[in-house]
Design goal:
The complex is a heterodimer of chains A (281) and B (106). Chain A has 281 residues and is α/β, with parallel strands linked by helices. Chain A has a single domain, classed as LigB-like (Protocatechuate 4,5-dioxygenase, Chain B, 3-Layer(aba) Sandwich). In chain A, 35% of the residues lie in helices and 21% in strands. Chain A has ten helices and ten strands. In chain A, a hairpin with a 4-residue loop joins strand 9 and strand 10. In chain A, helix 4 packs across helix 6 and helix 6 crosses helix 10. The radius of gyration of chain A is 17 Å and the shape is globular. In chain A, 58% of the residues are buried. By secondary structure, chain B is an all-alpha fold. Helix content of chain B is 62%, strand content 0%. Chain B contains seven helices and no strands. In chain B, helix 1 crosses helix 2 and helix 1 crosses helix 6. Chain B is globular, with a radius of gyration of 13 Å. The relative contact order of chain B is 0.16. Classes of the chains: A alpha/beta (281), B mainly alpha (106). Chains A and B meet through loops of A and helix 1, helix 6 and helix 7 of B.
Chain lengths: 281, 106
């Protein structure tokens, strides 16, 4: 069929692990917005969900680090973190290896993507799923962009990855939903956890909303590190969603700093347009 | 500094229950599989999450390790802050470049 849904959201482990410590005045409307995102996802009646994530060394390490990888497993286990810490039970999430294979083959026409028949989910996928598919019953196809271990793929390539995913989604009969999940500015897993550059986040999301390819891909990694922390490298996942919806606009439904989550809580959707909108490169 | 080997040990501990069991049963035997400096091995022996941060372990690897070792969130953040005060700046890796190269707390 085609891409039927495209959204973005934050994935900080604090969203589940430390939900009770967040200011309810911000947390509650944020979680309500995620409920709205879930409803929109369900309304699109997807057969499968591709999650573009920025995993945190759950599967890939500097011995053989793919810039881009897509899962091709029958199922996936997660979270790798201590379930009591993340407050998400360890479980098995269904995949769809046949659909994965078709998506991967199509993406490979444009991007040299790695594939993986084994894949463990960390908070980067488990936290979004816990909000969007709390029954963990919708088949998931994980897609990863290395955002943690430099050298990192250029932002322009992340946009291209999104375009390639879009072409792949439009080439299969299934209804595919796409969610990109990463942080914007944040300094997670450092003594400065909770530091957030709110204005940087808002400017990034403005560029994202108007799907401004040039502006979205103009940040150098040095600038991102300085202004948005090492966590800011994860904008690649959000840039990829814009690439998947090239020519269409996004709506940011929520963005507020939530320091105990180590990130802004944010959520948004982007118009997926028609299947024919995904033009050949 | 063999930061690569140190991170690989923690990466494998974080994601592989069999490595966790081996580590719990005989920590030295697991440590011997990795080419670590004595300082690195000692930090692992003592569950010294703060020192591991100073040694340059990627924070996303270290956060999961700290959770597995049973540190609460506040203990984990506190361990990094205390280590910065005790040992000075982060010595290597991408986290050494955070915050203007200090890798420190603001």
């Amino acid at each position: 069929m085609s891409l039927v849904f495209a959204g973005i959201m934050s994935h900080g482990p604090g969203m589940t692990a430390r939900a009770d410590r967040a200011d309810p005045a911000v947390r509650d409307p944020f979680f309500a917005t995620l409920g709205r995102l879930r409803a929109a996802l369900e309304e699109s009646r997807p057969d499968a969900l591709i999650v573009i994530a920025a995993e945190h060394f759950a599967n890939f390490f500097m011995n053989n680090m793919p810039a881009y990888a897509i899962g091709m497993g029958e199922d996936y286990e997660g979270p790798i973190e201590e379930p009591g810490w993340l407050r998400i039970e360890r479980r098995t999430i269904p995949g769809n290896p046949d659909l994965s294979r078709r998506i991967i083959c199509k993406v490979m026409e444009r991007i040299d993507v790695a594939y993986a028949e084994e894949w463990k989910f960390d908070h980067g996928i488990m936290v979004p799923l816990s909000f969007l598919t709390p029954g963990f019953d919708l088949p998931v196809i994980p897609a990863n962009i290395n955002c943690q271990g430099p050298p990192l793929t250029p932002l322009s390539r992340a946009y291209e990855f999104g375009r390639a995913l879009r072409a792949a989604c439009d080439a299969v009969p299934e209804r595919i939903a796409l969610v990109g999940t990463g942080g914007i500015s944040h300094w997670p897993a450092t003594p400065n956890s909770g530091k957030i550059n709110e204005e940087w986040d808002r400017e990034f999301l403005r560029r994202w909303s108007r799907n401004d390819r040039a502006a979205l891909t103009s940040y150098s990694d040095e600038e991102t590190l300085r202004d948005a922390g090492q966590g800011g490298f994860e904008i690649r996942t959000l840039v990829a969603v814009a690439g998947a919806c090239e020519g269409r606009l996004g709506e940011v439904w929520f963005c507020e700093p939530i320091p105990i989550f180590a990130t802004s809580g944010f959520a948004g959707v982007m118009d997926v347009g028609e299947a024919t909108a995904a033009k050949a490169a | 500094m063999s930061l690569y080997a140190l991170q690989k040990l923690i990466y494998e501990l974080n994601r592989d229950g069999a490595v966790q069991e081996a580590f719990t049963a005989d920590r030295e035997a697991v440590l011997a599989r990795y080419r670590l400096t004595e300082e690195e091995a000692d930090a692992i022996r003592r569950d010294d999450v703060g020192k591991l941060y100073i040694l340059g372990v990627n924070g996303q690897i270290l956060m999961h390790f700290a959770a597995w070792r049973g540190l609460s969130w506040d203990e984990y953040i506190g361990a990094m802050k205390d280590a910065l005060a005790e040992h000075g700046e982060v010595r290597g890796g991408i986290y050494g470049a955070v915050d203007g190269g200090a890798g420190g707390a603001v």
